[in-house]
Design goal:
- Pfam families: Cytochrome_CBB3, SoxA-TsdA_cyt-c.
- Keywords: Heme, Iron, Metal-binding, Signal.
- This is C-type cytochrome.
- The protein has 357 residues and is mainly alpha-helical.
- Helices cover 37% and strands 4% of the residues.
- It has four domains: 5-54, no CATH class; 62-186, Cytochrome Bc1 Complex, Chain D, domain 2 (Orthogonal Bundle), CATH 1.10.760.10; 203-291, Cytochrome Bc1 Complex, Chain D, domain 2; 301-348, no CATH class.
- The strands form three sheets. It has a two-stranded parallel sheet.
- It binds heme C (2 copies).
């Protein structure tokens, strides 16, 4: 942001003006948001960094793109994002295109076709890659990052660069970012930052909240609701949260900070971070309940993060550079781990992962 600060502010201003015109993108607040319960800290933080983050952006209306090769590819990409299982799931019509290992859709997590603030938006992705990946220790381009979700969130395999779903997703994501400057940071990126707990998140308390607030949609066994019982490729009306057709244990959604914030700001489906239904504490506990369930396992996770000091504090699998237990990395509290990592960083700079040659 340092280099492009002035340009980004100028563009942010222009985009702000454009936001009041008809056709401005959905899923964002044009006015400063009201503080919600437990949100004051991050609101202050977002105001403090308001100059650096693009608050409102414009996305061309995809349905108005011409019916040429590019327009068709972008529309196909939106469809791959929304009906992933149909195009590339384990039961997709063309066996050569079965890259995903489950019947989730990208949009189940990247809400509103990747446009919802704190719903893991993809609006800035094409502007932000290539970028260094702490998980692999290498520079990742946008296709590599998509494959990160293919192999973990979608529990499948990487796609060849020239596979049609990959080309289409890249075209769609490039269009989403087309109004943003290179390296732009958007307001509402990720899943949010609810206040941390001072105690471990509690799966038993979470089970009670799950039974009250989630079970009607996600079902007692976490299996969700298929659109078509006879054909899994139609995907889910409500996606599973655990079990054999869910994301695997190496996925970002399997980290407590990510899922707690995602649930707080987006669940029950339809709420937003401006007016959440759950208190932060309830979100932590219900997320812990989901995290305590079984899901597909990905081999080789112990080789993630070549520098162990880059490993997010809530990564639920080792090895770790600090002395904290796996249980604390899974359920928190994370404050003490964060402090120890900061101390080790100041002391040693880096701690190589012994499993990476
Ligand atoms: C189970 C939930 C889930 C599913 C399904 C999923 N993702 Fe993700 N995705 C995530 C999480 C969590 C992140 C990390 C977000 C962060 O770090 O802010 C992420 C990050 C990304 C990013 C990087 C965004 C950025 O700006 O850094 C891209 C691109 C992406 N996903 C694409 C996809 C695509 C394409 C699909 C479908 C093939 C998909 N994802 C399916 C959860 C999911
Ligand atoms: C009204 C029905 C409904 C309720 C209630 C609900 N969800 Fe969801 N949930 C959904 C739908 C639908 C999606 C997918 C959204 C999409 O595809 O646009 C989803 C997506 C998710 C995801 C990301 C996708 C995945 O497979 O992991 C998580 C995590 C999640 N919900 C957790 C919860 C939790 C925890 C609760 C209870 C606090 C809850 N939901 C309550 C309908 C619901």
């Amino acid at each position: 942001m340092r280099r492009n600060g002035a340009a980004a502010r100028l563009l942010a201003g222009l985009i702000l003006m454009g936001a009041f015109a008809p056709g401005a993108a959905l899923g964002q607040q044009a006015t400063p948001p009201l503080p919600a319960a437990g949100r004051t800290d991050s609101l202050a933080a977002s105001l403090a960094t308001a100059n650096a983050r693009v608050a409102v952006w414009d996305i061309p209306d995809i349905d108005l793109l011409p019916d040429d090769e590019e327009g068709r590819l972008v529309r196909y990409g939106r469809s791959v994002l929304e009906a992933s299982a149909r195009h590339m799931g384990p039961d997709a019509a063309d066996p050569a295109q079965r890259f995903a290992g489950n019947n989730l859709a990208c949009v189940n997590c990247h809400l509103d076709a990747g446009r919802k603030k704190f719903g893991l938006p993809l609006v800035a992705a094409a502007a932000d890659y290539p970028r260094y990946s702490t998980r692999t220790g290498e520079t990742a381009d946008l296709a590599d990052r998509i494959d990160g979700c293919m192999t973990r969130s979608m529990n499948g395999r990487a796609m060849p660069r020239d596979a049609k779903p990959m080309r289409a997703l890249l075209a769609y994501l490039t269009l989403l970012s087309s109004a943003l400057p290179k390296d732009a940071k958007i307001e509402g990126a990720g899943a949010g930052a609810i206040p941390a707990l001072e105690r471990p998140a509690n799966p038993a308390r979470g089970a009670v909240i799950y039974a009250q607030t989630c079970v009607a949609c996600h079902r007692a066994g976490g299996e969700g609701l298929r659109r078509n019982e006879a054909d899994a490729s139609f995907g889910y009306g409500v996606p599973p949260l655990w079990g054999p057709d869910s994301f695997n244990d190496g996925a970002g959604m399997n980290r407590l900070v990510t899922i707690a914030n995602f649930v707080h700001d987006n669940m029950p489906n339809g709420v937003s971070w401006v007016m959440p239904a759950l208190a932060p504490e309830e979100a932590w506990d219900v997320a812990a309940y989901v995290a305590s369930q079984t899901r597909p396992h990905r081999d080789g996770l112990d080789r993630d993060f070549p520098d162990l000091l880059d490993k997010p504090v809530d990564t639920p699998y080792g090895p770790y550079a600090d002395g904290f237990s796996q249980a604390q990395h899974k359920y928190g509290p994370f404050g003490p781990i964060r402090a120890e990592i900061a101390r080790l960083k100041a002391d040693k700079g880096r701690v190589p992962n012994p499993n990476v040659r």
